[in-house]
Design goal:
The chain has about 400 residues and is mainly α. Helix content is about 70%, strand content about 0%. The chain has one domain (about 20-409).
């Protein structure tokens, strides 16, 4: 039996402290860390978790958002059925086909988010959220706005809201933006992961916790030398808006189509590559041992301390560690795609959701560096130097959120 599973809340508390300790060891300027601000960010994240999961109002908000996501998915089904006929029906003779049942929903969600962006709803939510959170989190307006935008948008789109500030940002601000871009997923992917068996309420809550969590670890690893506050809260750039609502829907649909095709291609290639690596590891391992060891076993052993500290049973802890490793070395899509094949308890499934909910992986790190580098070419050297630390900070942020939830559940 896993000794950590006897006292799961205590083991999660140890895991949270371990994440903070690793971040402290990675810090480039320990003397500049504002411990008062760090403690306050932890308090904000814990308070947000308590509100969402332990209060009636918070649970109703998550229930409403979950219902809204499920309603949108059901609405998308009418279009799927019209285009694909029986192929798009899960009760049809073909059964569940990922390409026909899940990927088209991404197209619809992208169109819907684009429509919300055009009419100004996302802009309004980001603006109001920045007004409220910026004083609480003690971050600059650009850092707070980008973190909020990332909870809705993709790893590169969120940076457009602060594009005018990228060239003159301090390295600490630039680092915070990179970390927030890697810590959360975009709203367009919610339906995809819910269809994969991920609990919707915890998926949404994980993205919310990523806002203060990303800034928490960003300011430990690369603290600000001086307090920097922009006078105005950045707004979504006007030149990226469509001319009318119909054009916005068309643009969102086409972008969603590209995203769906990219996701399908990435899942195909990464799952195949992981399978190939499994075969190689088994064949090489057979030379030294009779017990086959796969690539998934290796990454699971590498992240095993983090899995066991979640307070899960021995089998669950190893499976959680395996998924965390797959997410880090490939991407969260592949990890979530494998979640249905694992036999997690409700608590284990919830904690794994928080640990996986983010773009903190090597491939997305390159996307973020390339995306910001395109918007601010003069900062490419800084971006390259900060990339690996940003990836580690985002990974620690995701794990820290999982441990906080583990203390509460």
């Amino acid at each position: 039996m896993n000794i950590f599973s006897i006292y799961p809340a205590a083991s999660c508390a140890v895991g949270a402290v371990l994440c903070l300790a690793i971040a402290y060891l990675l810090s480039c300027n320990k003397a500049a860390i504002s411990y008062k601000n760090i403690i306050f960010k932890i308090f904000i994240q814990l308070a947000l978790a308590l509100f969402l999961l332990k209060t009636g109002v918070g649970r109703h908000i998550l229930l409403y958002l979950t219902h809204a996501t499920q309603t949108l998915s059901a609405a998308a089904q009418s279009g799927i059925t019209f285009i694909f006929g029986q192929l798009g029906s899960q009760t049809g003779p073909w059964g569940f086909v990922f390409a026909f049942h899940v990927l088209p929903i991404i197209v619809f969600f992208s169109a819907f988010v684009s429509a919300l962006s055009y009419v100004g709803i996302i802009r309004y939510l980001i603006y109001v959220g920045s007004l409220i959170l910026q004083p609480l989190l003690g971050a600059s307006n650009s850092e707070t706005t980008c973190a909020l935008a990332k909870s809705f948008l993709g790893p590169t789109e969120a940076q457009l809201v602060v594009r005018d500030y990228l060239a003159t940002m301090s390295k600490s601000e630039l680092f915070a933006i990179m970390v927030s871009s890697l810590t959360m997923i975009s709203a367009s992917l919610f339906a995809l992961y819910i269809y994969m068996g991920v609990p919707a309420d915890h998926l949404i809550a994980a993205n919310c916790l990523g806002i203060p969590g990303s800034l928490l670890f960003a300011k430990i690893i690369f603290p600000a030398q001086h307090a920097v506050q922009h006078e105005a809260i950045p707004d979504l750039p006007q030149e990226n808006r469509a001319h009318n609502l119909v054009e916005a829907i068309i643009q969102g649909t086409l972008e969603g189509l590209q995203l769906a095709l990219a996701i399908g291609a990435l899942l195909l290639s990464f799952l195949a590559l992981i399978s190939l690596l499994d075969m190689i590891c088994v064949n090489v391992g057979s030379i030294f041992t009779h017990k086959p060891i796969t690539f998934q076993d290796l990454v699971g052993y590498f992240f095993a301390p983090f899995g066991f500290l979640m307070g899960l049973s021995g089998h669950e802890a190893l499976e959680a560690s395996e998924l965390i490793g797959i997410k880090f070395f490939s991407n969260e899509m592949v990890a979530f795609a494998k979640i249905a094949s694992k036999n997690f308890s409700p608590r284990g499934l919830a904690l794994v959701t928080y640990a996986l909910c983010g773009f903190a992986n090597i491939s997305c790190m390159g996307i973020v560096v390339g995306g910001i580098g395109t918007l601010a070419p003069k900062r490419r050297a800084d971006l390259s130097n900060l990339a690996w630390h940003a990836l580690l900070a985002a990974t620690l942020s995701n794990l820290f959120s999982a441990y906080l939830i583990g203390i509460l559940l």
